[in-house]
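Page 37, top half.
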Amino acid sequence: MKTLIVYAHPEPRSLNGSLKDLAVSTLEAAGHEVRVSDLYAMNWKAVVDAADFGEHATSPLRVIPSSAGAYDAGALTPDVAAEQEKLLWADTVIFQFPMWWYTMPAILKGWVDRVFSFHFAYGVGVHDETRYGERFGEGTLRGRRAMLSVTVGGPESHYTDRGINGPIEDLLFPVHHGILYYPGMEVLPPFVLHGTDKMTRGDFADAAKAWKERLLSLETTEPIAFRRQNSGDYEIPSLRLKEGLEVPGRQGFGLHVRDPRAGDGTSGHLRRNGR
């Protein structure tokens, strides 16, 4: 297995840093190849601007056509091109980060904004009467697996249906479905550590054991059963889920996760102050 770890935390001695290091040592000990993109250590540029596209930047700047022109010409900046090469090399991608203000750190979102360029991660495939491009289960990154490893400051009870922050599955849905599944990656259920603001040394020992177990089962873990865009579940071109396909008891984001027991030939199976 070839694994890329995209790591976003400014402190190497943090809990996230320890989880990243443990992932590297565990996977390498099991015979897997590992690469790490340590975004803070790389001083990753987190904003998209005309400099990303050189002579292919439009004036005024329009990011989508500029991105397409630079990608098609092989003229994206070397840092972006290197990260795209890592994604194509990997068969598994792990994102290690703390949840800050209900989402990923800005530097990691900036990595997505720049690396997931037009014609690489989106704008792929044919748009016609029966298809709306290759995305949501198809696309450039199809055949790869992705998993979030997230630390959350608050207790688990805060992140449930009746918890004040809402279900963790809902908070992570935009990343799982809109960033990772969109260009074709199969998304594994996340590894989430709650209550990290008050984690003790004993708690970490338990967490480390659970993390090792998850890492060593990456190849056999069933992915979240998101519905593929072009599987026939959605009307074209409205992309509304067809009537009668709802899983009983599901609503909102849950409508777009099929019952894995149904077996439709697609993939199986989602506080601000993280540490």
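Page 37, bottom half:
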Amino acid sequence: MKPRLEVVAVDCLMVRLFDEIAEANMPWMLAASERLRAVFAEDLIDLVPSYTTLMVHYDLLALTPAQARDLVGEALNNLSPDAQAAGQCHVLPVWYDPRVGPELDLLASRSGLTVAQVIRRHSEREYQVFALGFAPGFAFMGLVDEELAAPRLGTPRKRVAAGSVGIAERQTAAYPVVSPGGWNLIGRTPAKLFDRERDGYSLMQPGDTVRFAPVDHGEFIALGGDDTPLEAQA
């Protein structure tokens, strides 16, 4: 790890810890987040973690840019991941079906796998939540099996149903709310991923892990899932 500091704005610094996305980064990212929150204390306005970076937004009325850089250096000095630190593990039920996952058959055909094999490979892994973004509660997770990796759609959909589970490159995610989107959809979860009444709003946070658990149609409906086909929701 070779940390670099980049200026994003007059009151914002980007701490770049890594150059490549990897699951092994997360313990270091969590440790750096904890240290940065501690050293900046009440002078920290926001801290936004991503795959390889941490954006530090600080109070310019309380700190000069030079003082902010010094605090970042203090936070990263002798940094080491906490072996005991771990996020929450979430198990999300998913109904994998072409009616709600129109790219399920396409991914199977492209990879030379059967639909059942695509479902098994997607659901047998435990995914790391790297970052939140795009929409409230949208968690970018990875890394999916290389054979399931697929580029985003050439033309994004204008409307993707809440709960839709998709793949883009080697990332996977579930749409927390109805929104446009260009990911390859393979199923749908009934889980409530974004809730204004929840502390932090999002079900998942960076550092958490996620497993997708296949369920049949009946169980999906019993859990409160909406099985309206994607085309009917447009």
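Margin note: Helices lie at 26-40, 65-76, 104-111, 115-123, 217-222.
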